[in-house]
Write a structure and sequence with these properties.
Blueprint: H1 26-35, E1 54-58, H2 63-75, E2 82-87, H3 88-96, H4 104-126, E3 131-139, H5 143-146, H6 163-179, H7 187-198, H8 200-216, E4 220-224, H9 230-246, E5 252-256, E6 261-262, H10 274-291, E7 295-297, E8 303-304, H11 316-330, E9 337-338, E10 354-357, H12 359-375, H13 377-381, H14 385-388, H15 391-411, H16 416-425
Parallel strand pairs: 1-2, 1-10, 2-3, 3-4, 4-5, 5-7, 6-8, 9-10
Helix pairs in contact: 2-4, 2-15, 3-4, 4-8, 6-7, 6-9, 6-10, 10-11, 12-15
């Protein structure tokens, strides 16, 4: 491994040596999150200036435009930890190409292969000291969609669990959820949820997730269950976590409890306090304990795909109460993953363990390309190569790199690997050059 300055470097204490591998493992990623645990041994919160957040950047088709910028940003000034992740939608889009329709599972397989090949190619060029691959927003289907008259139950046996297994899993989840304060569901709801867990769309979503997991070998993997009722969420997330372990993967599974809003939602966000907040924290902590999730997301006032002018203040009170309760209940530090990070007024360092950024990079590249085509419209329509070549895409990629650097600095992790390497060598007063 080499630093940006060209000399050999060792990763700081607790970081893997990346000389012989392109991306870190799930266990490596767990290690860095443990190092960034924002709570002291007595459960007090560390001062904000001491807390760190890991940046997670979303790659979209065409992958090379964004990934070149991400990996470039990750090595500047000695290196910063980064998670390069891909959503189910991004992989399915890439896997389908220009086809209007294609099977979900095969689209995810093709998209995952393309994304990983691109990521490995740029990782081999830049040699980031700590880069992880991730899967983001692998959504299970809506209950009504899965149970529409056009859909048929998935077969048992090799094609999925038997009805008895589904019923037993759901009953166990209901009992566990009730022990953490979740209201018991009606018998009619349980019957509907049994059909859901056996439905073809649900089983296809699970198969697609496992295919992407096998192809990508990620260190982080998120299952999107935000719209499911709590008891059904307990059952689905437990099944996914168990399947990941059974597959031999060491990926951190991010679970979701409650919905993150979409831009334009009118429902709004309600802050909790007192007993109501304590009850919510107990439910989330119990959910993590039962399912075995290694990461967690729940509402803190953010919105997905927020426009540039919209900024939301994170609910740091809820974050601190819930994250502390999870640590008390499970005995493990479980990083919180902030969704809708583009629209956050600020990063609650440490309380937010993983900051997901997607919209910012899409908009950054699109704005640059729009500016370029606006200035060169006549030359482009005249067919001039100088106005239509790769230079505009390289410049768009460079703008993404600069946006990623800015976010790394907001997270407090920009150049942290280089700083620790210098401390190890006794040269902490020397600053590595930024490109």
């Amino acid at each position: 491994m080499k630093t940006r300055g060209g000399g050999p470097a060792q990763a700081g204490p607790g970081y893997p040596n990346m000389a012989d591998t392109q991306h870190v493992t799930g266990n490596d990623l767990r290690g860095i999150f443990q190092r960034f645990n924002p709570f002291c041994e007595d459960m007090r919160l560390r001062p904000e200036e001491e807390r760190k957040t890991v940046l997670a950047v979303n790659g979209n088709f065409p992958f090379e435009l964004q990934l070149a910028g991400f990996y470039h940003a990750s090595v500047l000034d000695g290196g910063s930890p980064i998670i390069v992740q891909f959503s189910m939608g991004a992989l399915a889009t890439a896997g389908r190409g220009l086809r209007v329709r294609s099977g979900l599972v095969e689209s995810l397989r093709a998209g995952a292969r393309l994304a990983k090949l691109t990521a490995e190619a740029y990782a081999s060029i830049y040699k980031p000291p700590f880069a992880a691959l991730g899967l983001d927003h692998y959504a299970v289907p809506d209950i009504r969609d899965a149970l529409s008259p056009d859909e048929q139950p998935a077969p048992g046996g090799d094609g999925g669990p038997s009805q008895d297994q589904v019923r037993s899993r759901l009953k166990e989840a209901a009992e566990a959820a009730r022990s953490y304060g979740v209201r018991p569901p009606a018998r009619e709801d349980m019957a509907v949820w049994e059909m859901y867990l056996s439905s073809a769309p649900y089983r296809e979503a699970v198969d697609g997730f496992l295919v992407a997991l096998n192809e990508m070998k990620p260190a982080w993997a998120m299952i999107d269950t935000e719209d499911l009722p709590p008891v059904l969420n307990f059952a689905v997330t437990k099944e996914i976590c168990d399947l990941v372990i059974a597959s031999g993967s060491d990926a951190i599974v991010e679970a979701e409890y409650g919905a993150t809003g979409q831009s334009g939602d009118e429902a709004g966000y309600r802050r909790l306090s007192g007993r109501e907040l304590e009850d919510f924290a107990r439910q989330v902590a119990g959910f993590v304990q039962y399912t075995g999730a290694g990461g967690i997301s729940y509402p803190i006032g953010m919105q997905h795909a927020a426009p540039s002018a919209v900024r939301h203040e994170p609910d740091s009170v809820r974050l601190e109460v819930v994250q502390r309760q999870i640590l008390k209940t499970t005995g493990r530090y479980i990083p919180f993953a902030q969704h809708g990070g583009t629209g956050a007024k600020r990063v609650s360092r440490g309380l937010v363990g993983k900051d997901n950024i997607n919209t910012l990079f899409l908009v950054t590249a699109a704005q640059y390309l729009a500016h370029h085509t606006g200035e060169n419209r006549e030359a482009i329509f005249q067919g001039k190569k100088s106005a239509s070549g790769a230079s505009m895409y390289l410049s768009a990629s460079r703008s993404i790199m600069k946006a990623a650097v800015k976010k790394l600095k907001e997270c407090g992790t920009y150049g942290i690997l280089g700083q620790e390497a210098l401390k190890e060598s006794g040269e902490e007063n020397r600053r590595l050059p930024e490109e």
